[in-house]
Write a structure and sequence with these properties.
It is built from 1 helix and 16 strands. The chain has 211 residues and is mostly beta strands.
Amino acid sequence: MKKPTGKLAVTAGAVTSALVLTAAPASAAPSTVWTVGPSPVGVSLSNGANIVMSVNGIAWTCTKSTATAALRSATGNPATVGTVGSLAFAAAGAPCSSVLGNITLVPATPWTFVAQDHTAATGVTKGYLGDVDMKLTVGATVFRVRGKASATYTNAAGKLSVDSFAGELPIVESLNGGSAFPVGAGLLLKADYLVKKTGTTVVPTIVGSQP
């Protein structure tokens, strides 16, 4: 059997190298320029669906929630592109309810919206709500959570979706919480808010890019 010629060996090596280069995915650089349109802008938020929270499998639902916030362009990664100035859970005739009875939630604002990643093809910015601080009361039990909650913002829908992970919102204080709401237990929060420029139907946008 004839040995491969040098030319064939070089060609085979070149093909292998090409395949390796093709297979290696290009890593996208993270966004460091965040453009809010318009900026700065005051916005109002209202829940587009029921808000659901839970601790240790005990869940409660809020059918009404509103907030006000300010959005602005920013640089850096992560970057604060929004500040929640006021936030209310429940309303007259629409309390937050659980199997233990109605539950009262009192947020200590401001909270922030921090951007970390942007996908141009979908217009979705990933990040989190930061500086989350909230006191909750149900019956004689009072507990407090602090931390952050993972979130995304979708330009096309003008929707802020909050979906926290385990460990992001731990209970830091608890009075009469027992085994249901002990210090260290995590609160899970799932919510969708529709965002509009205050007093209008204009939907703001958030776009991340490189300079």
